[in-house]
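Structure in, sequence out. Go:
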């Protein structure tokens, strides 16, 4: 199966091939596994097995790219928001997502990979980012649904990451989760206003929910049995809760909220299962998921083109910032 892990070069110079570790390195690795798995926090300067470093770069960079690409479907609506209040909120939310991307790129850089390498992987189409951002935002209701369901799913997935074993990632996630929580509530509030409006507005909300429901469930990744990274990520304390368990938590929470909102989800199998204490739900179309992940979703090409264009058009800004920095060294840099 295609995996980005194979595409990311070993970041730090001199990092040995994990399959060829000498015996003392193997013992070091075993001790590390035990510490990381038992809740100890690993910092950037600590020794870590090459495979731990590699999977963190993989996950954190994918996460950063998702935040940045995730600005695009919402940016599409800034000029068409229905009021000044909604436009201001949307602008602030998009700006927050940009900030999340930057914290996450900074966290990835602590692992020895450069931002240029990460950007190059995104722009060449090698790097993954969340499947969800390859779907179009067709109406204003889609923006509410992105806040309610997409940010809602993101929070459920990301709160456990605040306790992940890698310190710089865990600390970035604390602030990100607080902001995502505001995003989720503003999405719900926007949809509630529409649900209290005209029949056409209510129909628009239901239509958006119908289109986003299944792609949102896919955000949590493949079933646990098909999740090739879960075993090691769980052992190392990067992943605290499995893909399927987080997906179930999300379905249970979303069902309760949908009743308040007055919308339904497009799944005839959704029903309370008293024996399990959870909602049952229908099968996910994994062919669609992999199709989108592998670059063939409805908006993959458009999203990448937009990012590459932004990078190229921003060249003069980067050049000006570098020229300014060269003329005015930061005090700490000048003193060093
Ligand atoms: N899309 O072995 P697993 C947001 C890939 S941020 C694309 O289970 P893992 C904020 C996976 O990378 C949303 N690819 O992988 C916002 C792997 O391929 P690889 C992003 C996916 O890492 C809101 C392969 O499938 N959040 O929404 C997806 O253990 C609104 C096998 O999967 C994060 O990134 C997918 N949905 O678990 C912004 C959170 N799922 O790398 C704007 C951090 C799986 O081996 C507006 N990430 N794949 O080539 C994670 O928690 C994990 O990486 C998972 C996947 C749970 C996403």
């Amino acid at each position: 199966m295609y995996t980005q892990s194979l595409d990311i070069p070993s970041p730090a110079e001199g990092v040995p091939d994990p399959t060829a570790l000498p015996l003392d390195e193997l013992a070091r690795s075993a001790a590390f596994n035990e510490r990381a798995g038992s809740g100890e926090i690993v910092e950037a300067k600590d020794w870590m097995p090459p495979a731990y470093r590699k999977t963190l770069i993989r996950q954190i960079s994918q996460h950063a790219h998702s935040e940045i690409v995730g600005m695009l479907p919402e940016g599409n609506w800034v000029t068409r928001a229905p009021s000044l209040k909604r436009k201001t909120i949307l602008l602030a939310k998009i700006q927050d997502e940009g900030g999340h991307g930057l914290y996450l790129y900074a966290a990835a850089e602590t692992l020895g990979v450069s931002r240029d390498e990460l950007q190059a992987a995104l722009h060449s189409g090698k790097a993954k980012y969340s499947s969800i951002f390859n779907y179009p935002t067709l109406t204003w209701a889609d923006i509410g649904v992105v806040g309610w369901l997409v940010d809602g799913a993101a929070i459920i997935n990301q709160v456990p990451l605040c306790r992940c074993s890698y310190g710089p990632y865990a600390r970035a996630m604390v602030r990100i989760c607080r902001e995502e929580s505001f995003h989720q509530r503003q999405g719900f509030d926007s949809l509630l206003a529409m649900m209290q409006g005209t029949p056409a507005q209510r129909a628009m909300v239901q239509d958006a929910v119908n289109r986003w429901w299944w792609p949102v469930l896919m955000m949590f990744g493949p079933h646990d049995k098909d999740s090739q990274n879960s075993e090691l990520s769980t052992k190392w304390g990067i992943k605290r809760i499995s893909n399927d368990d987080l997906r179930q938590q999300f379905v249970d929470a979303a069902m309760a909220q949908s009743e308040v909102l007055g919308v339904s989800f497009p799944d005839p199998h959704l029903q309370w299962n008293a024996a399990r204490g959870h909602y049952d739900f229908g099968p996910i179309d994994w062919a669609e998921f992999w199709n989108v992940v592998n670059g063939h979703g409805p908006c993959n090409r458009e999203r990448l083109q937009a990012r590459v264009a932004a990078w190229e058009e921003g060249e003069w800004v980067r050049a000006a910032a570098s020229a300014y920095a060269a003329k005015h060294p930061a005090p700490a840099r000048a003193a060093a």
